[in-house]
Design a protein that fits this description.
The complex is a heterodimer of chains A (129) and B (177). Chain A is mainly alpha-helical and 129 residues long. Chain A has six helices and no strands. Chain A has one domain (31-122). Helix content of chain B is 37%, strand content 16%. Chain B starts with a helix and ends in a 28-residue tail after the last strand. Classes of the chains: A mainly alpha (129), B alpha+beta (177). The A-B interface holds A 38, 41-42, 44-46, 48-49, 53, 57, 61, 64, 95-96, 99-100 and B 63-67, 124-126, 128-129, 159-160, 162.
Chain lengths: 129, 177
């Protein structure tokens, strides 16, 4: 049984933590309410269907959400994020790679993780190099 | 004639990118007519088909269907009608019900291919969300979408087989020793 009350508290704390750390991010809105709800629908329904689907579909759903989010915000994002977002849309490894070459898939995701870290650094007060 | 049927079976592919070009009503009806002739356990016909062409309804369904990559102009939802199952004392766990969904799905996809249309099955969606969006009767359970449309020129080839197989790899003759 999921403890929703506890989840809610944790999510609030997470939101506060994210908000605290976001002082260096652009305050421009990059997502409309409709887009946010569409993304939310994808995430909630993915969570539900994942309970009955093969475990390796989990990353696929998360990457589908990543692609959609990138596509939604790329035109409105700041210069600091845009390059990462444009690359993100084009370079997400596909499911076939996941099934046929797990090492290549992991390496491709690692590359994306490094790219998102670089994007975070560009938005932070820390040096990127 | 038999060669044409076999060729249709061998050349059908799952298509995940479609154009917005509409599908003619007669073609949709031909696909549904084909499904009517699909094998059904005990000839009980528990399947019911919901045809969705309305753009906003299709959009909402796609939003609750993470496995629906196509933006197809026509969705056909194969439902099991539990009233029919109950009428014939079939328990909900009876596999014949899902086998009926499978035979109908393949028959519709082959019919679509024969008509020059693209198709693709989708089972990754929230059943509860789909029931709500379509206001399905309580006795209908949404089992599988068949997306129907026209193949986009940008469509990727279907997923390759994980390893090359022939029918021989899948078949064993007579008793195991």
């Amino acid at each position: 049984m999921i403890d929703w009350a506890n989840c809610a508290v944790k999510q609030t704390e997470l939101h506060k933590a994210v908000s605290r750390g976001s002082t260096h991010m652009s305050e421009n809105w990059v997502l409309t309410e409709e887009e946010a709800v569409e993304l939310l629908a994808l995430l909630i329904t993915s969570a539900r269907i994942q309970m009955e689907e093969p475990a390796n579909y989990g990353p696929l759903r998360l990457l589908t959400a990543t692609e959609r989010l990138s596509g939604m915000i790329v035109e409105r994002a700041s210069e600091k994020s845009r390059e990462f977002l444009q690359e993100n849309v084009d370079r997400i490894p596909d499911m076939h790679m996941r099934m046929s070459d797990v090492d290549a898939y992991s390496a491709a995701l690692d590359e994306r993780c490094r790219a998102v870290a670089a994007c975070l650094l560009r938005h932070s007060s820390l040096p990127e190099e | 004639m038999s060669e044409a049927v076999l060729n249709n079976i061998k050349t059908r592919r799952v298509v995940r990118e479609m154009t917005g070009e509409p599908v003619a009503r007669e073609q949709i009806e031909a696909i549904l007519e084909a499904a009517r002739w699909a094998p059904s356990g005990g000839n009980l016909r528990p399947n019911r088909y919901i045809v969705i062409q309305d753009a906003e309804t299709r959009r909402l369904i796609r939003l609750v269907s993470p496995g629906m990559f196509q933006e197809a102009p026509v969705l056909i939802l194969i439902c099991t009608n539990w009233d029919v199952a109950a009428e014939h004392n079939l328990p909900p766990t009876d596999r014949a019900l899902l086998i009926d969904v499978g035979t109908a799905a393949q028959t519709m996809m082959l019919a679509a291919h024969a008509l020059g249309l693209a198709s693709g099955p989708v089972t990754s969606y929230s059943k509860e969300a789909v029931k709500k969006i379509l206001n399905l009767p309580e006795s209908y359970s949404p089992e599988m979408f068949i997306c129907i449309g026209h193949r986009a020129s940008t469509a990727q080839p279907g997923m390759r087989a994980w390893k090359k197989i022939t029918w021989r790899d899948l078949t064993h003759w007579e008793r195991f020793k």
